[in-house]
């Protein structure tokens, strides 16, 4: 059995006061971490404050990191520093980073290796644009992203990796993939991982992301291949985040 994960991605939202208000509202209301892993991925300057107040059942993640140990990379944050701050997860290769900050399949692969080396749990994002979907090439595109991201990784490492399938056309648009469509593509990702790395693919958690809301989470989580959600807009309000993480109550 794969433990489900519900992860919020705040993107570039919230002041420090807003972040503290959120964490105080949710920290002691999280589900048992053995049953559901819950994560909030916040802007870097907020991470330490959130880690200090995360409570027993909530973990904190970063939204990106650099692939090098250290160096002359102005503005970047290393995996080691995140780890030292008490951060547990890191999003890698979000489509917004790919679109606006030149993140490539190659850098995703390097960051993934660096995160694993450092002991951060990577959440690797893949997903197709509307053009690709409409031309019927979703499976080909997404599985190629997976092949490149996982290059040179041992099967042993796979269990620690979390994948998020986030179709670009569904992000922030209110147009979610249907549960059945998300399940189908995630099933294809898992089959591809199996072909690449063997049966360990059955242990990899694969999340869906793209306009997930409290009203849609249950339908998604009922699908056999979907192991959780990476949620943007609906993770910002504490009440909505609490509804998401308690989808099974
Ligand atoms: P929304 O839930 O706002 O569509 O964002 C999805 C996302 O990009 C999460 O990483």
Which homologous superfamily in CATH is the superfamily?
Answer: Aldolase class I
Low-confidence parts, pLDDT < 50 over ≥5 residues? none
Q: What is the number of strand segments? A: 8
* Overall body shape: globular
**Class by alpha and beta content:** alpha/beta
Can you identify the CATH class? Answer: Alpha Beta
Order of helices and strands: EHEHEHEHHEHHHEHEHEH
Q: So what's the oligomer here? A: single chain
How large, in whole angstroms, is the Cα Rg? Answer: 17 Å
Average pLDDT metric: 97
The main β sheet shows up as: 8 strands, parallel, barrel
Into which percent range does the helicity of residues fall? 40-55%
Q: What is the fold named in CATH at topology level? A: TIM Barrel
Report how far apart the termini are.
19 Å
Number of domains: 1
Approximately what portion of the residues adopt beta-strand conformation? Answer: 15-25%
> At CATH's second level, what is the architecture?
Alpha-Beta Barrel
